[in-house]
Amino acid sequence: MGFIDDYLKVVQRESRGLVARNKLIGQFILGLALGFVLWRYPLSDYPVNHTMLPFFKDFYVVFWPALYPLFVALVVTGSSNGVNLADGLDGLAAGLSGIAALTFGLFAYVIGRVDTSAYLGTFYLPGAGELGVFCAGITGAAIGFLWFNAPPADVFMGDTGALALGGALGVTAVLLKSEFLLLLIGGVFVAEAVSVLLQTSWFKFTRWRTGAGRRLFRMAPLHHHFEKLGWPETRVVVRFYILAILCSLVSLATLKIR
Questions:
Q1: How many whole angstroms separate alpha carbon 160 and alpha carbon 188?
Q2: Predicted local confidence at residue 61, as pLDDT
Q3: Each residue of 18-31: b (16+ CB within 10 Å) or e?
Q4: Which of 9, 31, 130, 256 gets the most CB atoms within 10 Å of its CB?
Q5: Average pLDDT estimate for 17-41
Q6: Contact present, 226 and 255 (Cβ < 8 Å)
Q7: Span 136-142, average pLDDT
């Protein structure tokens, strides 16, 4: 979906690119397809419609199997768009994605080993360690890309990279049964997406009530709000990195606070 959008913008010179509604529909359909495949052809003996809750050892969320594909579609669509919204400053999306992927890699290592999963009180998921290798690859790719994307950027990610990275993080969370943990690990992405939803909703609501739309933030997504406050681009990027690292540390703390 990202490639189609970038192709229309760069090659076909269509400034709008792929219509947002069509992009969302395409993402949702792909997410539904993934959820259906995982539902019909489970990758392990662990119940496919179970997902763990952070900070809890013996409590899980259990979905009605028929609704599981819908849940997967929501996770993947939300994750891919969260990363895409963060791709507005040089180096921001790549760095945040690398931090999130590294954190998921550590969880994959823990969940994929019988001894560490038993010691830390989490469930054991056979084959999860392979996702650790995948996450390490994403982290390495993000670091390599960041070398050329650091401010001022020489290359840009575009939707081709941002949607793919977000989708990869969402799918990893689904395969690790850690969908709710994605909200912690990707806390900065969540804040970026929520800022856009709040800004849009509040503007439409106030326009309906008063005839003139008002803004909650000076500009959305959130990183542009801080730019409007006078923060230099590099300060916004570095501070968002710090917040992402703190989110990752909180997520790792859930392994012992159970």
A1: 20
A2: 87
A3: beeeebeebbeebb
A4: 31
A5: 89
A6: no
A7: 96
User: Which residues lie closer than 8 Å to 187 by C-beta, 6 or more apart?
Assistant: 243, 244, 247, 250
Torsion angle in degrees (nearest 10) through CA of 198, 204, 205, 211? 140
Is 139 strand, coil or helix? helix
Instruction: Tell the residue number behind the tokens 């999963």, with chain if given.
Output: 117
Backbone angles phi, psi at 46, to 5 degrees: -70, 130
pLDDT above 90 covers a percentage of the chain that reads: 67
pLDDT in tens, 187-205: 999 999 999 999 999 999 9
Looking at residue 52, the DSSP 8-state letter turns out to be E
- What is the distance between the alpha carbons of residues 217 and 19, in angstroms, rounded to a whole number? 25
Question: What sign results for the dihedral spanned by CA atoms 56, 59, 65, 66?
Answer: negative
- Report how far residue 241's alpha carbon sits from residue 239's, in angstroms, rounded to the nearest whole number: 5
Amino acid identity at 257: I
